[in-house]
Amino acid sequence: MSAAAAAVTSSAKLAVNPHKISSLSSRSPLPSAISIRSKRDIPPKRLILVTCTATGDGAKPTVLVAEKLGEAGVQLLDKFANVDCSYNLTPEELNTKISLCDALIVRSATKVGRDVFESSRGRLKVVGRAGVGIDNVDLSAATEFGCLVVNAPTANTIAAAEHGIALMAAMARNVSQADASVKAGEWKRNKYVGVSLVGKTLAVMGFGKVGSEVARRAKGLGMRVIAHDPYAPADRAHAIGVDLVSFDEALSTADFISLHMPLTPATSKMLNDETFAKMKKGVRIVNVARGGVIDEDALVRALDAGIVAQAALDVFTKEPPAKDSKLVQHERVTVTPHLGASTIEAQEGVAIEIAEAVVGALNGELASTAVNAPMVSAEVLAELKPYVVLAEQLGRLAVQLVAGGSGVKNVKVTYASARATDDLDTRLLRAMITKGIIEPISDVYVNLVNADYTAKQRGMRISEERGVLDGSPESPLETITVQLGNVESKFASALSESGEVKVEGRVKDGVPHLTKVGSFEVDVSLEGSIILCRQVDQPGMIGTVGSILGESNVNVSFMSVGRIAPRKQAVMAIGVDDMPSKETLKKIGEIPAVEEFVFLKL
């Protein structure tokens, strides 16, 4: 029986799920309830992104490395986990192994499809892609199964950019063809006259990390650089002297085209017969991104027609390509076997970057390189850290105040902040509130990856509002308010004037605090367990409740009282380090001035 989901309530006015207890009072049957749900404990104070499910006391998690990884990365993994380096697995072998693994690390060759996640039976929590592209991982299946996918987007950026420049220069000067000719005993200087790069227009298609680094280097070679990327900020392009243009303008004006976009349904075969027809005759194409963005048969036709003068390719639709591939064998095509990230420095960097991301994720840390979770920068993660804890705790607190049988369908979250609306990223907070609400009332494990998916599957609608405050924007948030609509409450005082279960909190000195329950203001540190009592405001109440808890050896960590007016109703919030017994809670409920109370385990 899990303490994490326990909620013990007593009320003189509310009778909620009165099973398992006959009478806890000799004076009169107290309509009291113990509502306990069996579920594994979820530590409330960690920023849980994923939790390793390795079994056994102190057992290390198991990480399967399915493709060659740099030694530095393997050594880092070895310090934290049991590492299984098994390369060249068949799909069947991978599916068999994966049910024993907590994390999987791959490069580009291994396909991680839905069958892998199904075969893992819920154990696989992290997939690490040692590199940038993630088109070999089924992200929708990973999200559905609550598996985080992380990549290593920075370590091989320079290597890929350098390889793109190297291919462009080699292509322009016919280096590979001339090399093969000389080694064959020929000396045909006139046949391999090339073209200069200076003064030529290079169109960079995809202005991300690699694309922008290619642009920098091309500028240094004296080229005019334009770029097409619907998501790139113009100021970043202008900062390095690059003009952002439309797709058609890039195609029609470029002497060289360098591809740096991911492979998605929108970019698949983006260069095809139709787009080749729009290009300047004699254009030269470099691809160090993904093979699937080019229709390879159409490229062969464009080469034969003279539309494309030359191509330099590091990637292919199918790798390795067929030995008799017309594209690979074409005399005006320079090819390399997917060497974009293949430098000693990049291999080492990628290995370390992906190993750190996987270890961090298994440790429950928030990953800034996650590709199927809210994408939040490291700076924002650090700033939001205490608010993330607050968000989850408010969700857990709110759902434990809902009476048994009431399904939570409508959730309203209000963020009060002095910051501008576009300067507050709430995706992470929303995910943690969802996690806090769903986990205590279900057997589903929720993390940042599958929070929105899980909420949608349960028909839970979450709306968000911003409350703009005057004052200093130094802190990202003043308060977070969570309201659950169309539900009954175990603790009537938790209902707002409009009838929703309502809790509000803020961060004080880095510690999450509960500051309002319903219409009552309190000041409670959100840690351990909490007893909320609605009472008649009269002298001696704090001492009376404190004495009952002390006699039962239950340590009180704090007390706070919020009241409407002197001698009227008040709500007392009591923090306790231990879970009180049924008898102790019964004694609190028997105090004449106590109208209702609820015990909550966070």
Automatic annotation (TrEMBL):
Q: Identify the taxonomic lineage of the organism of origin.
A: Eukaryota, Viridiplantae, Streptophyta, Embryophyta, Tracheophyta
> Which coarse location class describes where this protein primarily resides?
plastid
Keyword annotations from UniProtKB, A to Z: Amino-acid biosynthesis, Chloroplast, NAD, Oxidoreductase, Plastid, Serine biosynthesis, Transit peptide
Q: Where in the cell is it found?
A: Plastid, Chloroplast
Gene3D superfamilies recorded: 3.30.70.260, D-3-phosphoglycerate dehydrogenase, domain 3, NAD(P)-binding Rossmann-like Domain
Give one GO biological process term.
L-serine biosynthetic process
Species of origin = Arabidopsis arenosa
Q: CDD domains attached here? A: ACT_3PGDH-xct (cd04902), PGDH_4 (cd12173)
Q: Which GO terms describe its molecular function?
A: NAD binding; phosphoglycerate dehydrogenase activity
Q: What is its EC number?
A: 1.1.1.95
Which pathway does it take part in?
Amino-acid biosynthesis; L-serine biosynthesis; L-serine from 3-phospho-D-glycerate: step 1/3
Q: Name one Pfam family in it.
A: PGDH_inter
Quote the catalytic activity from the record: (2R)-3-phosphoglycerate + NAD(+) = 3-phosphooxypyruvate + NADH + H(+)
A single Gene Ontology CC annotation of this entry is: chloroplast stroma
Annotated protein name in UniProt: D-3-phosphoglycerate dehydrogenase
Domain ACT per the UniProt entry, residue ranges: 530-602
- Family from the record: Belongs to the D-isomer specific 2-hydroxyacid dehydrogenase family.
